[in-house]
Design a protein that fits this description.
The protein is of the alpha+beta class. The chain is 36% helix and 16% strand. The protein is built from ten helices and nine strands. The strands form three sheets. A four-stranded antiparallel sheet has the order 6-7-9-8. A three-stranded antiparallel sheet has the order 1-2-3. A two-stranded antiparallel sheet has the order 4-5.
């Protein structure tokens, strides 16, 4: 009996050991995603330290060449980059890196089964209480407080109009502008797009139904919209108010899209497009280069 008990204890210890080892190896594999953040934000130093007590990596972050920025600490937390005090609430947040599709399919061309599946997925996504954690971005853009953030907001001339953005995205936004203006030489669709364009960017607000700030609040999101939608829809929630839960299946012929060249210009410079989300927002672009690095193939914008 004593030998059997010792054997069971040994098995339990070994099981716990290998379970912890497996967890550590899995975490090590996932932490390689940190390299994507390093590539996306080359002006930031990321150092990682294994925390035995938390069984997770502690990420030390510092913005190079800006001594006024103190270093900040985040736990990897499955790619959520959370401060220690938020680890107890980590289930409230989704990982920062997520699937951003290469192309999107027109619901009108789907089978009945595919349409029903898409509708369910989109409705579930719109009702989710979890969301992207803002802590890393609040540090990066100094947006913990509105008064501090606004010292970094600047007004720029853009595509013949003006907009306010965070100074950190002025250069990539200007590169997008250059690409779009170049596209006008060969694309009538882009020429028309610019003639009808309205634009908006920095706007401090909390996302409706959540306690999270919009990326517009950081000055890193840009909305492009024509002066007249001609009856088409551009944002899922507005479409829902008009047609109910079938917003998820609204055919492309009834949605407004920027020209393909415009979408490609933004993506080439690190901006993701809201038109690819399940809860679609076809006027919306936001500077998230780490998302595009995570999803390397960002071609074939709209599948015909």
């Amino acid at each position: 009996m004593e030998i059997k008990m010792k054997k069971n204890v040994l098995i339990a210890i070994l099981g716990a050991f290998f379970s912890m080892r497996s967890y550590a190896l899995d975490t090590c594999a996932k932490i390689e995603q940190l390299e994507l953040f390093k590539k996306a934000y080359p002006d930031i130093t990321f150092n990682k330290i294994w925390d035995n007590e938390k069984e997770d990596y502690l990420i030390l972050v510092h913005i190079d060449g800006q001594p006024e920025y103190e270093s900040e600490e985040f736990y990897w937390a499955g790619g959520k980059l959370l401060p220690e005090e938020k680890l107890c609430d980590k289930e409230k947040y989704t990982p920062i890196l997520y699937h951003y599709p290469a192309g999107i399919d027109d619901p009108e061309k789907m089978s009945k089964v595919q349409r029903e599946s898409l509708k369910q997925e989109c409705i579930e996504e719109s009702q989710k209480e979890t969301g992207s954690p803002m802590f890393f971005y609040d540090y990066l853009y100094d947006s913990f407080e509105r008064s501090k953030l606004e010292t970094h907001i600047t007004k720029i001339s853009y595509l013949g109009l003006t907009m306010k953005v965070h100074k950190k995205i002025v250069e990539p936004a200007k590169r997008v502008e250059k690409r779009i203006l170049q596209a006008t030489k060969t694309s009538k669709a882009v020429q028309t797009f610019l003639k009808e364009l309205t634009i908006d960017a920095f706007f401090w607000r909390v996302i409706k139904g959540t306690d999270r700030k919009s990326f517009h609040s950081l000055g890193i999101a840009i909305d492009v919209l024509p002066k007249n939608l001609h009856g088409k829809q551009t944002y899922w929630a507005w479409a829902k108010d008009k047609i109910g839960e079938n917003w998820a299946l609204l055919p492309f012929s009834q949605r407004w899209f920027p020209p393909k060249e415009v979408i490609e210009a933004f993506e080439a410079e690190g901006f993701i497009w809201g038109g690819k989300w399940g809860i679609w927002d076809t006027m919306h672009f936001e500077y998230r280069p780490e998302i595009l690095l995570y999803n390397k193939n960002n071609q074939n914008i709209i599948k015909e």
